[in-house]
Amino acid sequence: MDLDSKDREIIGILAKDARISIKALAAKIDLSRSATSERLSKLERSGVIRGYRADIASQDPALISAFLLIRLERTPMHSLLDTLAAFPAVKRVSSVSGELDLIVEVEAQTMEALNTVRDRIAVSGGVCDLTTSIILRDEIQRA
Questions:
Q1: pLDDT, tens digit (0-9, with 9 covering 90-100), for 101-130
Q2: CATH numbers and ranges of domains, the chain
Q3: Whether 11 contacts 3, CB under 8 Å
Q4: Which residues are within 8 A (CB) of 36 and not within 5 positions of it... i.e. 6 or more apart?
């Protein structure tokens, strides 16, 4: 589907506030409510808009989230993957191309717990370099 500037404007507004009323959305994009509603329906039918979601805060807002950016001495390192899988704080491990080899998503209760996990991974066999990037806030999150 080819999107025009009004369609892109609608998508931009909905990305920031999916609960906006049709009336308010129409006023922001300077169209009638019926024209706005018709555009929304078209975007939904075409699959551009796949749904509207609630952005739910973590059950434990005190969790510290971070990405561990890892370079390995060699790949593949299946023994390291087994080590990573053993940490409950490790939520996701992604093998990537480029200068890095792995991106590990970690959630910990405290900074000390995060450092413990990080330090244990850093001294694991085969880890050449490990950089920690603390997640300050999620800007865009999709399901």
A1: 999 999 999 999 999 999 999 998 889 999
A2: 5-45 (1.10.10), 64-134 (3.30.70.920)
A3: yes
A4: 10, 22, 25, 26, 29
